[in-house]
Amino acid sequence: MSSNARAEYRKRTQQRQTVIFGSIIAVMAVLLVFGTLVWSGILPFPEKKFSQPPTAETVVCPTADAAPVTPSTITVNVYNATNRSGLAGNVAASLATAGVVISGTANWAGDEFEEPVRIYAGPAGVTNAYTLRAYFPGATVHADPNMTSQVVEVVVGTAYSEMVTAPTEEDFTAAMSPIKGCVPFADFS
Known about the structure:
Layout: H1 3-40, E1 75-80, H2 87-97, E2 101-107, E3 117-121, H3 126-132, E4 140-143, E5 152-156, H4 169-175
Parallel strand pairs: 1-2, 1-5, 3-4
Antiparallel strand pairs: 3-5
């Protein structure tokens, strides 16, 4: 091989290496920029969306034949999910004045939430929970399959301002209508 042929061979090899290494460096630079944007939160991380079974945070529907019940037949535990002292006791006193049986009051063990009221019920207490919605406009009813009795849990959130002390018949009828996006309790088993 002559020195001229050898020089040509080296030149072609160097050009190929420059293209290959340049391409690799460019791809790595793009991946570095993309990774930095995802890490910093500017770009959302791509996630696969899986359907999930209903949880206790899922809103439950009333039964098709549900009708409001007499407040004196409803037993309630009232919980305070805010940092306002005595809120559960105040709500419990107002419910007791309306004829609802109060089983107890306490601070909520879960996190604070920005809704006025969440009402938790087991399968036997869904109608009671929907009846209580007449006292708490904007309240949502959540399923708790672990609750076996008709006792209902009223959890007061940070957006709570006051309850309706004397709901009308129309309030009770409106309270029994299903909440948008609710799931039948049968789907929780």
